[in-house]
Each structure stands twice: as structure tokens, then as C-alpha cells.
Amino acid sequence: MVSRSKPTATGLRLAYATAGLLIGGAWAYGRDMPLWEHALRLCVIVVVVPPVLHLIRRRLRRSAVHHLPLRHLIVAKVLLVVGAVVVQLSLDPLTARTSLLTAVALTAVVAVGGPAWHRSRRTTGGPSV
I need a surface site. Which of 38, 47, 50, 116 has the fewest CB within 10 A? Predict the structure, then answer.
């Protein structure tokens, strides 16, 4: 059996690209909601759902990938949502496709910046709290 404690570079890029598409899709899907409600829903999706899935995976005794310290992940995800709100508010007076452009930006930031951020956190990460 292959150990999954250290993801490969390709696997890491694929995981972040998938996450970026899901996050961007969630943002685009909620375009008819008030912005505060939309941001709160996305925060729940990116902050609460992954740890719950991790706990389910552990309960089913499936091998789990080594994760970054929880504090770093939560801060990064909340900053991602705050950034999306700022982009949305900045673009709102300029175009009618604000939600779509924000969704594309979210997807790009997660897919492109995620693997580099992940690698830098693994090399400087402290204890998992």
C-alpha cells in the first residue's frame, strides 16, 4: 500500500485546481444572494466542511493525507473569502458580471497560488493546532 502522507506535486496541483473550481463554482452559484449571506455560506463551505470530511474519513479508517496546521488553513480560507468580498464590491459598479469575475478570480487564486502556499506552509509550519 502506498503511503499518502506526502502528496506529489501533480497530486497537490490537481487537488488545489479541484478545490478552486468547487470554491469558484460555489461563488458563482450564489450570485442571487445578498453578499454577506453569500460570504458566510462560502466560509462555512471552506472552513467547516473539510474538517468534517476528514473526521469521517478517519472514522472509516481510510488513510488520510497529512494536513497543514489547522490555524493556517482557517486564516487562509477566511482571508480568501474576505478577498472575494472586496473584489465583488470593487467590481460591482463596473460590470454586471461581478459574481462570475469574482468566481474566476477565486478559482485562479486557489488553483495557482494554493500549491505554492501549501509548500511554503509545510516547510515553515509549526505544530498542528
Answer: 116
